[in-house]
Amino acid sequence: MTTSPAAPPSEPDAGLSVTGAPPPLAMWHAGWATACAVLALGGRFLGAGVEGPTALALMVMVAPGLGGLLLLRGDGFRQRLGLLTAWSLAAIVTAVLSDGLGGPLAAFVFMPLIAGLALGGVRLGQMGALGSGLASIGGLAAVVIGASTADNAVLAALAGVLTAAAAALALRLSFSARQARLDRAEAFMARSEAILTSQPGLTVVLAPSGRVLAAYGAPPPGLTAEVLFDQGLIAAVHGPDRPAVLSGLDKALNGLDAQTRFAPREALDRRVMLALKRLEDGRLIGQMHDATAQYAREAALDAARGEAEARDKGKTRFLAAMSHELRTPLNAVVGFSDIMRQSLFGPLPPKYADYAVSIHEAGGHLLAVINDVLDVSKIEADRYELALERFDARDALSEAVAMVRLNADEKGVALTSVLTPEPLTVMADRRALKQITLNLLANAVKFTPAPGSVTVSAEAVGPYLEIVVADTGVGIAAEDLGRLGRPFEQAGDAGQKKQGTGLGLALVRSLTELHGGRLMVDSTLGEGSAFTVRMPVVELAPPVTNEPVA
Questions:
Q1: Where do runs of H (alpha helix) occur along 43-121?
Q2: Residue 63: left (phi > 0), alpha (psi -120 to 50), or beta?
Q3: What are the backbone angles phi and psi of residue 118, rounded to the nearest 5°?
Q4: How far apart are CA 399 and CA 402, in angstroms?
């Protein structure tokens, strides 16, 4: 599982609030407040002359030190900006009370700048410098208007030492905080690089030209990072695969995710999968991993599919050839048995006459099966050619109805044809259309018990010829509908399957599809079935106009 490392913490200038300031910053403020309070209260005993406005100025400088302790409750850019404002105001008041830069507390005018450095951030440092400038101006204004205090060298020296110490600590605090942030950022970068380097694939950063700028991780076999850096991505790719890689680069530069596979130039037996994506700065990031096993599996599947297709075509050619070889002698068997059945060369004993009838019926059935096998084999081998011609579809349908009529009457099934009175002119294969209708009608009569009915209708629906054969037979189960139309597939129970070979509907579907049409089935078990054939073979009559013909 891949995990994303947490981003390094941001500086206070980012404007995000956090709970609790760093303890060193609060301690620095507390130390300053303590030092000012001690100097204000104990300066008289040290002979520093702390009295009157000067003592008040020292107490004013205690206020921002105490305010710094509030950062322990909530820290953020706004809180630090408010504290820096307090430092500036305190420095201005102190400068006014102590004669500015000429007074004993002159060093305190630099405390806003020092506080800005301690609080961290460039903006706060600049604002602290502004506060120090305002404090200096305030002290100068106090001198100009005549407010003065007695010179006190001891207090000035103590204030200078205190300010210098605060500055040193502030600088140390500021730079230590920055160094800590830098250390955290470097550690974060080291962890990120370690994660990228330990990943199983190779991640590369590419220039728009395809030049490799950085690489992390384990390169796939047959490809090394040194080759990518020295030669470039395109040069490391096998020549015939370079157009696909260049196309993937262009696609990724346009903001689309791209994926391509190529062979390394130095290992043509290997395959590498490259996924590319565009970064916000215009560069590309790519992920490479070994795709040799996947390529081998796909090649094996392609070879197996080709072999299976070759075997299937070989089987089809074998069936077609065997059908021809079987049909030739079978025609002789059917013909001679018919001569014997009709006693054309003299009467036969009754028993031999019965044998002749059985031979003729069995031979005719076998010949019909072989003809179906031959037609299906031709279609599957793409060797069946339609003999397209213009004719009235009603003629072919009427011939098919006439061929099934005798069988329907013997079985007690009512056979009805519903044809339009207008001609149905089509451009199709007459024999195929007759075979389609004949197979559908023969199946309907075969599986319709007496006193059922079979109805065939035909009409033109725009450019489509729609033939519907409906019956009131046994019907087809829902789970068997998906198998209908496949060669040698049959529906129903074992008794029903014995009545056919499963080639009739397969031939109907194939001949229909050769005409660009489709076969549809609607059936309910125990109620009957309706087979619909739709083929775009109708020739539409040209529109009649009243314009004279030149």
A1: 53-67, 77-97, 111-119
A2: alpha
A3: -65, -40
A4: 5
Helices (H), 386-503: 393-411, 430-446, 478-481, 494-497
The first and second tokens of residue 248, run together, are: 């993937």
Would the pLDDT of 546 be above 60? no
Instruction: Give the tens place of pLDDT for each residue, 326-377.
Output: 767 777 777 878 788 787 777 878 887 787 777 877 777 677 777 766 666 6
Cβ atoms within 10 Å of 335's Cβ, excluding its own: 12
Q: What is the 3-state secondary structure (H, E, C) of 200-229?
A: CCEEEEECCCCCEEEEEECCCCCCCHHHHH
| 3-class DSSP state of 516 | coil
The answer to whether 276 and 203 are in contact (CB under 8 A) is no
Other Cβ atoms within 10 Å of 2 Cβ, number: 5
C-alpha pair distances (Å), 494 with each of 170, 477, 499? 99, 14, 9
| Chain centroid, CA 322 distance in Å | 50
Which residues, at least 6 apart from 17, have a Cβ–Cβ distance to it below 8 Å? 74, 75, 76, 78, 79
- Type of residue numbered 241: D
Handedness of CA 107, 111, 113, 117 (dihedral sign): positive
List the Cα angle 54/60/63 in 5-degree steps.
155
User: How far is it, in rounded angstroms, from Cα 62 to Cα 37?
Assistant: 6
Cα 170 to Cα 87: distance, rounded to the nearest angstrom: 14
d(CA 301, CA 283): 37
